[in-house]
Amino acid sequence: MTDRTPTRPGGRWEWVPPVLAVGLLAGWGWTVLRRVPAGRGDRVLTLLGFVLLVLPALLFTTDRFRELLRSRRRPLQEIWFPAWLLFAHAVYLAGPGRLAGAWSLLLLAYLWVPVGCAVMARSSRLPGPWDWIALLSLYLPVELALLAPAWEPAGAGLPSPAHTLAQLTGVNLALFCFLCVRDLPEIGYRFHLSGGDLLRGAAAFALFFPVAVGFGARTGLVPFAPHWPDPGRIPGEVLGVTFLVALPEELFFRGILQNLLVRIRPTPGGRTAGLVGASVLFGLSHLNNHPRFDWRYVVIATLAGLVYGWVYRATGKVTASAVPHALVDIVWRLGF
């Protein structure tokens, strides 16, 4: 099985978008780190650890990188990429990080348990128990912040990059498990977007965002206070939301979860059930975004999941469904 998302061969130029994106993210990361009260060496090693994680996460959009990982002789295929992620962690530890005992051991388990589950799952064409165990073992440690202590800086008072670095570790591992080990088709993790893909994404945003604003204002979820954004915040919000929020969430909830649910019963009714099921779980995943249960946030996130899931189903690409997702979050953060 292969990722059968319709696309034109990228050739040598398929490397250009991910490399440019990494360069932009690295530049943005350095502007953030320059304001951190830490030594220059610690800042450099933090940035290097970040780049070592974000680079493969974006190179997974290319056919050549995927084939490079798939071509490794087993069992080295299942070992060396988690070892790369461990190396990125070690680089961070050499700077401001710290070896956090049991938490660092948990990180070791996190790097190989999902891979082992994906190995067990790849013999089956249809989704099975090992797929769901792999998915939960990838998602829950990041969502519940169980990995955060392994990425905490040692210096008191330093801002923590734990969430970002733990999330990037999870994204890389999910891509490796389901694109290379499990070889799940039609995830649609590609930067090549057609005009129709972009049009669907923009239309989904244009239709959903007024509904979201109206619902938020009517229920008191967010105050209706539109304003011009601070120009200095725009680059960071666009890069951070697009690559560290929208794309990872679309990969997990649409490219993997919705994809697996649809494959249980690949009929029109099954596809609709998969879309609805993934959207409800997407809504429920936002429960811990507030200190108490907030039904309004769950409802609006579920509706958003339906919209993003429709774009994914129509285009077959999580990068397309990430367009309305990113636009909604960016405009909401900057303009309200």
Task: Set out the fold topology.
Blueprint: H1 16-33, H2 40-59, H3 63-70, H4 76-94, H5 102-121, H6 129-143, H7 162-181, H8 195-219, H9 234-264, H10 268-284, H11 295-315, H12 318-335
Helix pairs in contact: 1-2, 2-4, 2-7, 3-7, 4-5, 4-7, 5-6, 5-7, 6-7, 7-9, 8-11, 8-12, 9-10, 9-11, 9-12, 10-11, 11-12
Protein model, in words:
The protein contains 12 helices and no strands. With 336 residues, it is mostly helical. It folds into 2 domains: 11-181, no CATH class; 195-335, no CATH class. It starts with 15 loop residues before the first helix and ends with a helix. The model is unreliable at 4-9 (pLDDT under 50).
Keywords, separated by commas or semicolons:
2 domains; mainly alpha; 336 residues
Question: Nutshell version of this structure?
Answer:
Helices cover 69% and strands 0% of the residues.
Number of beta-strand segments: 0
The geometry reads as globular
Low-confidence parts: 4-9
- Note the gap between the termini: 45 Å
Q: Sheet with the most strands? A: none
Approximate strand percentage = under 5%
Q: Percent of residues in helical segments?
A: 55-70%
Count of alpha/pi helices: 12
Output mean pLDDT.
90
Tally the structural domains: 2
Q: What radius of gyration results from the CA coordinates? A: 20 Å
Secondary-structure-based class equals mainly alpha
Helix/strand order, N-terminal first = HHHHHHHHHHHH
